[in-house]
Amino acid sequence: MRTVLLTGFEPFESEPINPSWEAVRALDGVRIGNGPDDLDAAIIVARQLPCVFGAANDALADLLDAIHPVLVIAVGQAGGRPEMSVERVAINVDDARIADNAGAQPVDTRIAEEGPAAYFSSLPIKAIVRDMRAAGVPASVSQTAGTFVCNHVFYGLMHLLATQGVPAGIRGGFIHIPYLPEQAARHPGQPSLSLALMIEGIRCAVTTALATTNDIREQGGQTH
């Protein structure tokens, strides 16, 4: 049976929880497909990454070696965003507004010295957004994954898939999710999304990515 790897992060910046981990761990062991004998079925494996530059990508590389997934979706917290953000592009720079959980705060640092300036997601990002919205989950395509550990992992994932001799055909990408309501209660004025909607959105993303080879072509950009 095929395996799908979902990753979420440990809490950071004094938050007691990280919604990315709460959402993906709820899907650990979930089967996507019609039944145990369905050759197209897949099982979800969820794992937590440290919110630490370098160590997060090392842990991700170890997971790829151990699990051999056909699909990898990394998920991270984006407090202040009002909906699930399916990321389009990862850029080759760390430029941290705050320190990571190990106290590191790189500025204007390349993630991969010999890597390209950017990688595009290999997920069907617009089809995922369409299907999330159809399921009642607020979602949009995002043009920036920031320059903190989330982008670091997104770029690291795509660089691994492009350069490290992993089996051809593995697809990967990144999704940012908002605060949970209990987090937003400590940040007045900030938007939030329920855990149930986050879980449903990620389940939609996995199902759509497994079933969709070529992305749909429809408007998904912004003017600024």
TrEMBL record:
It is found in: Cytoplasm. Keywords: Cytoplasm, Hydrolase, Protease, Thiol protease. It is an enzyme of class 3 (hydrolase). It catalyses: Release of an N-terminal pyroglutamyl group from a polypeptide, the second amino acid generally not being Pro. It comes from the Bacteria. Its main location: cytoplasm. The active site is at 87, 150, 176. SUPFAM superfamilies: Pyrrolidone carboxyl peptidase (pyroglutamate aminopeptidase). Its EC number is 3.4.19.3. Homotetramer. NCBIfam families: PRK13197.1 (NF009676), pyro_pdase (TIGR00504). Removes 5-oxoproline from various penultimate amino acid residues except L-proline. This is Pyrrolidone-carboxylate peptidase. It comes from Cupriavidus basilensis.
